[in-house]
Amino acid sequence: MEKMQDAAVAVAAALNVTEPTSTGIGGDVFCLFYKASSRTIRGINASGRSPAALSLARARKDLRLGEGSKRFFDDRGDEVVRIPMDHVHAVTVPGAAAGWVDVVERFGSGNVKMEHVLAEAVELAEHGFPVSELSARFWAECEHVIRDASPGNAGELLKGGKRPPRVGEIMKMPGLAKVFRKLAKEGKSAFYEGEVARAIVDAVKKKGGVMEMEDLERHGKLGSEDTVPIGIEFSGAKVWECAPNGQGIVALMALGIIEQMEKRGDIKPLGGGNKGYGHNETEYISTPPLTGHRLNTIGPRYLHAVIEALRIAFSDGHWWVADPSRSSVPVSGLLSPSYLASRAALFSRDSTNPSISHGTPAFQSSDTVYFSVTDVHGNGCSFINSTFGGFGSGIIPSECGFVLQNRGAGFSLLPDHPNVLEGGKRPYHTIIPGILTDPAGSELKAVFGVMGGFMQPQGHVQVLLNGLRCDMSPQAALDAPRISIGSNYDPGALVVHVEEGISEETIRGLREKGHVVEIVGEYGRGMFGRGQVIVAGWDEDEGRRVWSAGSDPRGDGQAVGY
């Protein structure tokens, strides 16, 4: 039993206090654990479900959607394919509270109680904490969300009940401290039954929702689901992700498609230096003296392959990823080499593929904060906690000091879709922790993650390529400029956001291949995710384990050793 799982929950709770725009007890949790003593990896799915009474018909009625050939349209005639982020029907049962308790009880050290695990978070909430620069910025940008959704309760998350806290100001959250104390003392029932549950239900119903006490009580008794992680071998290692309903499979598919592109001869190995395509930059090569140097746009080739692999993987993920207890998710089929090869055949080295639709694999066995934790024994924990949109749904249960998530926006409103909205169902989920091992899955190589909506699998792919193929250190792998396809909530959009730092020649080369490129800088760089990485090493002479780590410069995190 390990202390680091206790520490992971303590960090998650503290971040609920210091960055409530991104995470909290009103959201969900996914995590992966590598246990050194048994050399095994286990997963936890602590995501909540939609209210039992929320049917597609009810959502269609309340959203005032007209129907036409199994498609829904709003009053303006625009097609609606998912629940709007700001609608009450996007609220699902919070899974984080159960997840925190389950992680400590099932995988913790057994030497500390929840009162100790949550003690620092209670202290921060009750006595106050100085607000960081980015957190203050997020608070101000998302203020309208809580004011619009909870005009009577918004003051619980505002300085003095009136405004967002500014940089360096002390912010207190007594309502949240009270909830943490109850959870620590009474366990899951303190959150999923009694006055906290009643406050949640009342807040949702006040907005026209259909959540009942029974929905919360049912989740509290079911608890989190122990899951078997899924993985794929890539570049001499094995990449592990949580199984659906999370989107980790998108990252695995993209890596598998890239490898199949290389095997097919469509591209040279990415990150191969002189033997293949270099990293996201251009390179000058010598040519005959009369012409001096000519530009060899290696960067566009590298990024074009990554972009197209991600687009293909997302096209499958956005169709097949769903609650496996309600839909058959063909995990083995999607990750099979033959299927990945067929999807790689959609790639053209010269131009974008304008029309990528999901495939049909063989059916076989089936804003956010992220952090990594390891310990002296070689254990690793990859942990992610989120309320989805900034301040989630914006709905604040009275005197509780936290917002409810809006994960239900991840459902599809297409009647024949595997991820279609149903009562008591878990939606497509964006948050994904990652772990890297040797090909056999027995030796821990790294604990990693990149937070941020649909950027997450894109971040996983790019950071792994940086480390595995370009030999970058953990910090360099996170520092390197990234790309992001689509929009924050629609990876299918045909725009590629490119982070400042990628050369003009590379950007020009991408546009020549048909990509619609937008350059993003300054604070906007947050859209490329905020990652954390810990890499395992070993000093043969000393016979000692050595950890190296990196923390994303796009966020307020840091790598810390104790």
Describe the structure.
With 562 residues, this protein is of the alpha+beta class. The protein has a domain at 3-228 and 385-410. 33% of the residues lie in helices and 18% in strands. It has helices at 3-18, 56-62, 96-107, 114-117, 119-127, 133-149, 174-186, 189-192, 194-206, 213-222, 248-264, 298-320, 331-335, 337-344, 455-469, 474-479, 504-512; strands at 28-35, 40-46, 66-68, 71-73, 129-130, 170-171, 225-227, 230-234, 237-241, 283-286, 293-296, 368-374, 380-386, 434-437, 444-451, 483-485, 495-499, 516-520, 530-539, 544-551. α5 packs antiparallel against α7 (174-186). Residues 283-297 have low confidence and may be disordered.
State the main characteristics.
562 residues, alpha+beta, five-stranded antiparallel beta sheet, 20 strands, 33% helix, globular
